[in-house]
Amino acid sequence: MKAIIIDDEKHVRQAIKLLVPWEELGIDHIYEAHDGQEATELITLHKPQIIFTDMMMPLMDGLKLLEWLQTNHPSGKTIVISGFDDFQLVRHTVQYGGMDYILKPIDADQLEAAVRKAAQCWQQEEAERLRQQQRNIEMNQIRPVYWDKVLSNFIMEPHGFEAAAEALSQEFGLDRDMKECRLAIISLETMSGSLKRKFQSNLDLLFFSLTNICNEFLQQKPPQGIAYRYWNSEDEIIVLLYGANTGEELLNDIANGIWTSIKGNLDIGMSPAHPFPAGLPFAYKQAKAALRHRNLLRKDNQLHVYQEQTAVQHPALVFTDYAEPIRLSVRSGSAVEIGKAVQGWIQALGKLSTISIEELEHWRHEYTVLRSRWLIEWFGDRQPEFMIDASRSDFVLPLDDEGKLSLSLWQEQLTDSLIQLSNQMLEHQQQDNNAIFEIAKYIQNHYHQDITLIEIAQHFYLSREYISRKFKQQFQINVSDYITQLRVDKAKLLLLNPHLKIAQIAGMVGYDDEKYFSKVFKKWIGLSPNEYRKVSQL
Hints:
Blueprint: E1 2-6, H1 10-19, E2 29-33, H2 36-46, E3 50-53, H3 62-72, E4 77-82, H4 87-95, E5 98-103, H5 108-156, H6 161-172, E6 180-187, H7 193-199, H8 203-218, E7 225-229, E8 236-242, H9 248-262, E9 267-270, E10 274-275, H10 280-292, E11 303-305, H11 323-332, H12 335-349, H13 357-379, H14 385-391, H15 407-446, H16 453-460, H17 464-475, H18 479-494, H19 502-508, H20 514-525, H21 529-537
Parallel strand pairs: 1-2, 1-3, 3-4, 4-5, 9-11
Antiparallel strand pairs: 6-8, 6-9, 6-10, 7-8
């Protein structure tokens, strides 16, 4: 803390400096002034928390100084030290915020008590000021988010407007009697690559910057609209335009302002006029449709106004028509063949004059459905986890640095993705084959035991259906027949030993029942065990 002693008598200033325990009270800077005029200059410069002042001084006396302090430094705590026991002087001190009035000659205990009281009062008030300042900071941070969410809710629930109408009128100049509005969406989905890289680590800063730029245009007097972050989407800013006549010119000015401020071009979709607030949901759908149907191959127009004839679009191409060569190339494992197959699809796209987000998402859906079918065909119910996750991944628009659709970039991304899928598929198939051979080896080592498909499935943590299918694919025989054939082959060798009884041989190859063993053996070989033994010994 800082203190200043104001008195035209030097010995009084020295006495105060000696009598107050400055360090104990946390006061580390002490200034001196011989009159009120000099004091105002020092107080303005240093802003001391504790002020000692005489009442009778040249140039500016204590009366005038107290009045000046109340206006220019009200947080300071003032202690008057005077040689005059005058009621009017005391009254003036209290009237203008003085903490205490001490008579000369100065009583040390009285002075120390007054200074402690003043220091404690200032510290309490300072703590409250800091708390209030922090509250204000927090409110300033929360306030925009609060209004963004309130305004976002009106898109889905326009009837909620009435409850917030008065506050919105005071905050944003939104007339509660407004009959019509227009709505625009500023999309970050197709922002340029340079802008994306600039803000990739702080998307909140981009939203903050964009809404501020928009509102500089919209909130001029009189207010023409309000821009806010739409919390039901990851990449949209909503511009609510007051009235039916506010529109294209203002949004073009906003687009130019965005370019001037952050050197980025963003697409804007705009609805026609709708009743306010009831028409907000429909206005949002139309502004969204205007964006989804814009031509991604061009970037010469940022503002896209909804047109009724573009409400429904059908893809000019069908991805399914180009899927079979892609499927076969992935199965082949050849990166060259995959590249050729993808190139066929991209060449077909290159003949189109327009491509919209609507069409891209349709093709993406086709690809996802086909890919799922391929995985079922290749892996059945045991699809590798990485393939399931990849099929659920979000579609990222292949855009160049200007924000236009890049067919070459899309070709590169799709080719790389399919090559990776092919490599992972081949690797996984190799692992599957290894697992099937492990199962065959396990059967060979345990054929003489009561071995079943259920027991094998539990041992290898695989489903019975999966083992049956893959085993049949690999060995062209089902598991049970493989076990039987192995047991019969072993029995044939044992039957060459004339000293072994049929019952013994049955037990040695995994059959507890001699009759059942004989029945299985005859069905498999065409001869009973005894007949086979006689024939083998001839």
